[in-house]
Amino acid sequence: MIIGRVVGNVVSSRKYDTLQGYKLLLIRPQYTDNQEVIVAADVMGAGIGQQVIVSFGEGNQHALTKNAPIDALVVGIVDNEPIIDLSEQP
């Protein structure tokens, strides 16, 4: 899982049948050196600018109402941005 910020939406007029009904978001990972934007399905109702928790892998199928080819899934919306103390790092 990662924490990231929603930076945009993906609009797709045609997609795989079981993806119908899922909102697709662009997420920029935070607290990591990897700044590659990812696409994640959203069932939580997150919006642009919000900080979210994203889960990866086939375990996401347990959180879906139908079997869909989803690798990245927004599973939470962060209420308060975490405070990370990097001075404790080795």
Structural features, described:
With 90 residues, the chain is an all-beta fold. Helices cover 0% and strands 37% of the residues. It has a five-stranded mixed β-barrel. β2 and β3 form a beta hairpin.
Short note summarizing the structure:
This protein is an all-beta fold and 90 residues long. It is built from no helices and five strands. Strands 1-2-3-5-4 form a five-stranded mixed barrel.
Task: Set down the secondary structure blueprint.
Blueprint: E1 2-10, E2 23-29, E3 38-42, E4 51-56, E5 72-77
Keywords: Bacterial microcompartment, Carboxysome
Organism: Paenibacillus aceti
Main location: other
Which features would summarize this protein structure in a list?
single chain, 90 residues, mainly beta, 5-stranded mixed β-barrel, 5 strands, 0% helix, elongated, EutN_CcmL, EutN_CcmL_sf, Carbon dioxide concentrating mechanism protein CcmL, carboxysome, bacterial microcompartment
Specify Rg, calculated over alpha carbons.
14 Å
Q: Kindly, what is the distance between the CA atoms of the first and last residues, rounded to a whole number of angstroms?
A: 22 Å
Helix % is under 10%
With strands numbered from the N-terminus, the spatial order across the biggest sheet is 1-2-3-5-4
The H-and-E topology, N to C, reads as: EEEEE
Quaternary state, please? Answer: single chain
Structural class: mainly beta
Q: How many extended strands?
A: 5
**What is the averaged pLDDT score?**
88
> In DSSP terms, counting alpha (H) and pi (I) runs of 4 or more, how many helices?
0
- Overall geometry comes to elongated
Major sheet details: 5 strands, mixed, barrel
Beta-strand content bin? 35-45%
Unreliable runs, pLDDT <50, ≥5 residues? none
